Amino acid sequence: MADSATSRHPLEDLQKLAKEWGVPVLSDEFARLMDINDPLAGFREKFHYPKMGDLPLVRRVDGQPPVDPSEDGIYLCGNSLGLMPREVRNQLDTQMSQWARFGVFGHRHGFMPWAFCDEWLLQDMSDLVGALPEETCVMNSLTVNLHLCLTAFYQPAGARTKILLESQAFPSDHYAVESQIRQRGLDPAAEMICLKPRDGEHCLRTEDILQTIQSRGQEIALVFFSGVHYYTGQLFDIAAITEVARASGCRVGWDLAHAVGNVPLRLHDWDVDFAAWCTYKYLNCGAGCIAGAFVHRRHLGGGSRERLPRLEGWWGHRIETRFDMTNQMEPDETAGQFRVTNPSMIQAACVRASLDVFKLAGMQQIRCKSLLLTAYLEHLLKHRVPSCSVISPRDPQARGAQLSLLLACPVERVLSELEARGVACDERKPNVIRVAPAPLYNSFGDVLRFVKVLADVMPTDLN
């Protein structure tokens, strides 16, 4: 498979392959050949992929042949909940066995002892986000981690009191920011700078973000964005935004819920102050699973010029003296100082199973296939479902694994018909369907099947 992680548009790679194989890009045979030549094709078998007979909303559709219950569904919802790695059961069985056999001794004995189970994840998690292990911690859930980081890094002083974020950031981010501002006795309406796309556009332009930072930097205490926008799939230029924000004296934090496991990240090199992410979307660790956070090394340990204000708990205490029970806090010198309580060994086992898959596949190879999948999806939609508008960035390098489709008809009706035919994607009101082919377990055949089903269920008077 061609390397599309270049300056070429991945559609050029698809067209080049089609020419070499002597088949049209729009043909069924092209999808079949892409899957045969996909270096990640075997990773689908590392996941439990839903079957038609197990999907709860599949039903018999008038005029359609009966559903084959043994056929794979069309799962394109990894941006909401990733599929279950098969290795999860083995990891969980190991922990359950150790609990049954060892009791309390499981804290310090066996595979991934519970007193250190989060630390067993740090090397591979830090590799995934482009960080040092000491800058990474696995703890809590996403919004809890955001609150812990905001408590430390949002320190309004003098004229610098405002937080810059997207007007349509994920609601939980807005709620967290608003509550943090109120906790400091300030007014969210006055202290939040919420950037909107230009009239008639769906995505923020990087130049507009940078211009706002440069023109209002003296007012801004914190720039806080999502790495990949949940609604549009836009991949923000984390490096450029961070560089300009820090040059303007602002601290910079990122919500990477839709970015981790989706796009390559280099948080340390980009000099990000902090970041937080969940693990149940592209990381495939299970609903509500334990989350992750990053704090740059310059804020930690002996090299830090300041002691960040933190909400503290016993798991942020140095492991060497944590159990001495002196009631004298000795903060860990790593990002682990932000931990407040012990992690669940069950959730850690789920993360371990997922990280093993990512380590084997590699993010560069995942990103390469992702660019091809979304380019292929966009090309098929253009030719087979022209009534759909893609509101995700047209530049493949400026988006993740998700295309958001703007419909010119009621979204509930279309989604219901898709689900009846075994498609798993989701809606975002008022009229957007999010479609996310995840490279680890989705195929080009899945994308082709989805577009055929979508074309079939769209009202004919719109085509």
TrEMBL record:
Kindly list the residue ranges recorded as spanning the membrane: none
Which keywords fit this entry according to its UniProt record?
A: Cytoplasm, Hydrolase, Pyridine nucleotide biosynthesis, Pyridoxal phosphate
Give GO cellular component annotations, separated by semicolons: cytoplasm
Q: What is this protein called?
A: Kynureninase
**Domain of life the protein comes from:** Eukaryota
Kindly list the places in or outside the cell where this protein is found, as annotated in its UniProt entry. Cytoplasm
User: What top-tier enzyme class does this entry carry?
Assistant: hydrolase
Give the reaction(s) catalysed: L-kynurenine + H2O = anthranilate + L-alanine + H(+); 3-hydroxy-L-kynurenine + H2O = 3-hydroxyanthranilate + L-alanine + H(+)
- UniProt organism field: Macrostomum lignano
Q: Per the annotation, which location comes first and is thus the protein's main one?
A: cytoplasm
Q: Tell me which Gene Ontology terms the entry assigns under biological process.
A: 'de novo' NAD+ biosynthetic process from L-tryptophan; anthranilate metabolic process; L-kynurenine catabolic process; L-tryptophan catabolic process to kynurenine; quinolinate biosynthetic process
Key word Transport present in the record? no
Q: What does this protein do?
A: Catalyzes the cleavage of L-kynurenine (L-Kyn) and L-3-hydroxykynurenine (L-3OHKyn) into anthranilic acid (AA) and 3-hydroxyanthranilic acid (3-OHAA), respectively.
Q: Which cofactor does it need?
A: pyridoxal 5'-phosphate
